[in-house]
Amino acid sequence: MNLAALKEIRRTLHQIPELGFQEVKTGAFLLDKIKEMQTDSVEIKTWRTGILVRVTGKKPEKTIGFRADIDGLPIAEETGFSFASVHQGKMHACGHDFHMTIALGALKQLIENPIDDHVLFIFQPAEEGPGGALPLLRSSEFLEWKPNCLFALHIAPELPVGTVSSRPGLLFANTSELFLDFKGVGGHAAYPHLTKDMTVAASNFVIQLQQIVARGIDPLESAVVTIGKMESGVVQNAIAETARLEGTIRTLHAATIAVIKQKIAMMAKGFEISHDCSIAIDYGSNYYQVYNQEKYVNLFQDALRDSSITYKEASPAMTGEDFGYMLKEIPGFMFWLGVDSPHGLHSAQLKPDEAALETGVQAVTRTIRHLS
Ligand SMILES: CC(=O)N[C@@H](CCC[C@H](N)C(=O)O)C(=O)O
């Protein structure tokens, strides 16, 4: 598939972002494309909104897996692209349109030039939440075709096109979502003494949360607590009866998440007393760290050795990925693909350079051939 064909696919997918487990149009488009290239050696299964495609090997001894995530984010796009999202308030702001396109490009090459082993392409829903990897891993559809090793990629806005990056060991953090619902007493803006103001309680809570990492966690550990969304009240001249905070906790060590959760629970108890309110805590989806096996990172570098792609050693990142659950059970690795965007992941202005689609297809295809 040449760059023009890859771009056309990416742009179509970019226009129809869908949230986790709602990837109906995305799934239908992917299935059409897969069926266009299907031959006798290609088997297809669907699982919820995801798709598994197996290319039969010539003399198979094992199965090599490549996973691409397929969901978008609830972010309103501000790129100004002629092919911007037509789904209001939703965007491929994490590059999953790139991941899917690269998987289709590599699939075409593997169908045209099959290898000895089976190759499994995994189009996985709900990476941004609530998490598709773990239930997919447990599904009969996946278990029947379970790969012996697997890998995945993620676009990296800060890296130039033509560059890939990874590292042995921990690449992505442990994560937990965080949702806090505050309930107090609302009332007229002019009579604060008769109310329990949840805008004030939730605002204080956000400020104090920052001290959990700054003063409650060993400085030699790494942790992040971010509140990305805050909602309270209904109108400018009424005191808010309720407030909601939505955020995420990230740590490099799995055990540190439990420490932070315990401190948040204690803080909430204190706030219930000091602000005379109730606070319900929900930790939503939790993702296990992405931990790369050294052997596979070395094989990846070998696979790229006589290519034009530059390999760069990565540092661990506080991003999360439910692919971590797959790597917990199946050996493999994940890598970053440079896409050179001035705006980062989860930005409404993310503009990855489409030239990286070709680098991605080349890196994935070479790696699959080398792993066989
Ligand atoms: C690569 C990336 O950006 N992944 C997401 C994963 C989200 C996990 C979950 N919804 C959470 O926020 O904890 C990320 O935000 O890192």
From TrEMBL:
Mn(2+) binds at residues 94, 96, 128, 154, 346. The keyword Hydrolase applies. Its cofactor is Mn(2+). The keyword Magnesium does not apply. One of its GO terms (biological process) is lysine biosynthetic process via diaminopimelate. The active site is at 69, 128 (proton acceptor). Keywords: Amino-acid biosynthesis, Diaminopimelate biosynthesis, Hydrolase, Lysine biosynthesis, Manganese, Metal-binding. One of its GO terms (molecular function) is N-acetyldiaminopimelate deacetylase activity. Its EC number is 3.5.1.47. The Mn(2+) ion enhances activity. Gene3D superfamilies: 3.30.70.360, Zn peptidases. Pathway: Amino-acid biosynthesis; L-lysine biosynthesis via DAP pathway; LL-2,6-diaminopimelate from (S)-tetrahydrodipicolinate (acetylase route): step 3/3. It is an enzyme of class 3 (hydrolase). It catalyses: N-acetyl-(2S,6S)-2,6-diaminopimelate + H2O = (2S,6S)-2,6-diaminopimelate + acetate. Residues 180-266 form the Peptidase M20 dimerisation domain. Catalyzes the conversion of N-acetyl-diaminopimelate to diaminopimelate and acetate. HAMAP family: DapEL. Belongs to the peptidase M20A family. N-acetyldiaminopimelate deacetylase subfamily. This is N-acetyldiaminopimelate deacetylase. It comes from Lentibacillus populi.
